[in-house]
Amino acid sequence: MPNFTFEQSGKIVFGRGSLNELGRLTASFGSRVLLVTGRSFAVNSGFLAKILENFREVGLDVTVFQEVEPNPSLRTVERGVHVLRGKSVDVVVGFGGGSALDAAKAIAALIVLGGSPLDHLYPRSVDRALPIVAVPTTTGTGSEVTRYSVLTNPLEKKKVVMQGPALVPKVAILDPDVTDLMPGRLVASTGFDALSHALEAFISRRASPLSDLFALEAARIIFNNLPSAMRGSKEARELMLYASMLAGVAINQAGSTMVHGLGYYLTVHHDLHHGVANSLLLPYSLAYYAEKGGRVSELAEKLGFRSWFELVAAVCKLADDVGIPDSIASIGVSAGELDAMVEEAFSYKRNLENGPVMPTPEEVRNIYAMAFEGRRGFLKSLTH
Ligand code: NAP
Ligand code: FE
Question: What distance in angstroms lies between residue 265's CA and the mean position of ligand 1's atoms?
Fold first, then answer.
């Protein structure tokens, strides 16, 4: 048995109708609240009005910041702090996808720490922040249980991270009612982020027996439920919300790998959803790690496959089933970008170094080249 440490704080409240508990649970941290959310979903769905009514009932004083864009920028986080104009708050509530939650987490830290997000990026650790309450409305990032806040530096066109124990939400409210309105495409995209988290956490060099439990259970649920969740099954979406939280716990312990590191380029330069970016790199990264002796065969076996090849084929089939594009060429990447992509991948060393082996630039180029060709040809090359 290997040595390990497992640290996971925060209350998790799961169930239909649990959003009604938001006011009461938030009030336990104080009466002045900053509510952070995205631009359209919260207001258009009617959930924002419902939340504000719930806050009024328990006597909370609320400031709303509803300007978080997908892949939130450092500037958005700064604007979220300035919206308070010096007014004190006791607790920050995030309602939305990973973007709104991550912005809420960074704002909660900056209110306490001061300065700009640039002063507090990885490898620094965020040890102080206001209490955070998180309500995820997508089924992918697991941000409601992680110590990460993933932001975008728009000047350098890079994904950057604030991380630390104070960024783990004190309360996560997982109410499947909020996922009923998700378009099928968003279920597919975010579901592949959760699947990446689960599979990457298992093969990560920081994996432990306990993080494996979370990773394997998440992966099983996702393989069995993502297609029906995408097509609208409420029960399957409920399970996806649960699985994305489990996978969040897994990466909170073990971290992500090359899949995330290589995918960031596609999000930052081609505006591709984070989960789709991961899905387009996952099969080739798994095959690479398998050939280099990572724990991919063990992962496959524990998930009920006969070989790592069967696992990779199942990932490809799942991507086909839920309508993920076949290749990075089909989303508009040109072959002329390959050199820049390889160079940029190595600026995400924190992810690359966390895999079972550190790839060379040639190996990364090869993985991007396979992703460029697409899944169809790749599967044939594996069988022959
Ligand atoms: P997202 O960027 O939060 O949301 C994508 C879009 O979906 C937004 O336009 C949003 O609308 C909309 N939306 C949210 N909930 C919805 C619902 N229930 N029904 C209909 N539309 C809805 O997407 P995400 O995949 O959840 O988050 C991605 C971000 O999380 C990336 O920045 C990624 O890097 C980060 N991430 C963080 C972690 C972590 O541990 N912190 C882990 C993985 C990924 P509005 O804009 O109107 O709100
Ligand atoms: Fe992710």
Answer: 18
Handedness of CA 12, 18, 23, 24 (dihedral sign): negative
Estimate the share of the chain in helix, then strand, then coil, as percent rounded to the nearest 5.
60, 10, 30
Residues 314 and 344 in one domain: yes
- Identify whether 4 is part of a domain: no
Q: 158 CA to middle of ligand 2, Å? A: 15
Q: What residue owns the CA closest to ligand 1's atom 19?
A: 182
For the stretch 281-321, pLDDT in tens is: 999 999 999 999 999 999 999 999 999 999 999 999 999 99
Measuring CA to CA, which residue among 248, 236, 264, 241 is closest to residue 200? 248
Are 340 and 224 contained in the same domain?
Answer: yes
- This prediction has a pTM of 0.98
Domain boundary among 125, 157, 179: 179
| Positions of the chain with pLDDT lower than 50, given as ranges | none
Q: List 161's β-bridge partners, or say none.
A: 150
Q: How many domains are there within the chain?
A: 2
